[in-house]
Amino acid sequence: MPEMSEQDLAAVNQLRSSVMRLSRRLKHQRVEESLSPTEMGVLGTLARCGKATPGELARKEHVQPPSMTRIVAMLEEKGLVRREPHPEDRRQVVVSSTEQAEAILAESRRRRNVWLAELAEGLDEEEWAVLREAAPVLYKLAHL
User: Fold this and answer.
1) How far apart are CA 83 and CA 86, in angstroms?
2) Domains in the chain, please, with CATH?
3) Which residues pair with residue 81 across a beta bridge?
4) Tell me, what DSSP letter sits at residue 89?
5) Listed residue (59, 62, 71, 66) closest to 97, CA to CA
6) Mean pLDDT over residues 122-138, rounded?
7) How far, in Å, CA of 40 to CA of 47, rounded?
8) What is the mean pLDDT of residues 63-78?
9) How much is the CA Rg of the chain, to the nearest whole Å?
10) Parallel, antiparallel, or unpaired for β 93-97 and 81-85?
11) How far apart are CA 33 and CA 30, in angstroms?
């Protein structure tokens, strides 16, 4: 990787700080207060990726497998996920989200989108144009 200029380093620092602050503020726009951010993350992963084993979920959420087993059990107790036998490996289970979880996620996305749209009303047209162009780049960075 080529050496970064002072300007690039400053931009990276500002991006990191801004993304972290915006993320914290978005997390406060919660629909279901009884769910932890980790539990919401698991539901979001299931919504994006579909059914998964607890081991796969642990890797995607960057937690230890025993922790994910507890998280899945709590979500199942709340009626937000269901466990089914793995179709090929009888020692494993596959976790999927319920309609109730999908409704919570949809309302959460709606509420956060409204909050972010209201915040963005303070941008001028030039800033909106920059944001529209930056959105795919930020998405790519978030998913690398």
Assistant:
1) 9
2) 31-142 (1.10.10.10)
3) 97
4) -
5) 71
6) 95
7) 10
8) 96
9) 19
10) antiparallel
11) 6
How is residue 85 written in tokens? 């036998």
Which residue's structure tokens are 């992963």? 45
| CA distance linking residue 59 with residue 20, whole number of Å | 22
DSSP state of 94: E
> 61 and 45 in contact (C-beta within 8 Å)?
yes
**Contact in structure between 92 and 53 (CB atoms under 8 Å):** yes
As a whole number of angstroms, the distance between CA 115 and CA 117 comes to 6
Write a three-state SS string for 48-78. Answer: HHCCECHHHHHHHHCCCHHHHHHHHHHHHHC
Tokens read off for 138? 């930020």
Quote the tokens at residue 50: 């579909």
3-31 per-position pLDDT tens digit:
889 999 999 999 999 999 999 898 888 77
Give me 123's structure tokens: 């941008």
